[in-house]
Amino acid sequence: MATLQNKTIVIVGGSSGIGFAVALASLQSSAKTVIIASSNEARVHDAVARLKSHNLPGEVHGDVVDATNSEAVKAFAGRIGTVDHIVWTSGDIPPKSGLNEFPFSKVETPDEGQAAFTVRFWGPIVLAKHAKFHPGGSLTLTSGTNGLRPMPGSHLMAGMITGLDGLTRGLAVDLAPVRVNLISPGLIITEIMDKLMGENKDTVLKAYGEKIPLKRVGEPSEIAEAYLFLMKCGYITGQRIDIEGGILLV
């Protein structure tokens, strides 16, 4: 079975949630070096310490990068040097405009709506243009099932997420032979749920889980396996993998 032995893995958004799970899984799969990056220095330092506490082989490093700043992303690409695999899980979720309202549901102008694209869409584009990869390298982006099964009021986010499908295929052509793929997670229990749902989190997760064929929401460690697959499988590019417990079936 393929491992990540002697590989350098970079996870933008690796200080928490799915990104942290990918970082840990990479170390468990014998990665030589794992670099996690986030915009918050304190969270980066904490995540590095948590990863090192597992006492796994492999080096762990942290970096602070503002994914909303193109020049900062360019500089980050220069600092990490030539790498094997880059995973982008970072995403900025703004406060909702009101109770039970989806983020960006009240956007009326392009200037207001641009914020939905800054981190999740433009950030990966800038990094892809400036990153350097060893032979066999890959870039894996992250979207979500809202593009395929939109929630009420989520039209802008659904449009951005759907756009990531086209971006993935386009980058797969332009960056070849570097492989570019996309993971589309369903509802995964991460720290961001607290920000999105607040005190309603447990109630919402339980109700949503009952609708899923697998009768539960997902864990970060489960979805991390999909990212590892895309890093290790050398003959897949331009593809999207939905990891959503079957919610798209109902």
From TrEMBL:
One of its GO terms (molecular function) is oxidoreductase activity. Keywords: NADP, Oxidoreductase. CDD domains: SDR_c. It comes from the Eukaryota. InterPro entries: NAD(P)-bd_dom_sf (IPR036291), SDR_DHRS6-like (IPR051122), SDR_fam (IPR002347), SDR_PhqE-like (IPR057571). Pfam families: SDR. Belongs to the short-chain dehydrogenases/reductases (SDR) family. This is Uncharacterized protein. It comes from Psilocybe cubensis.
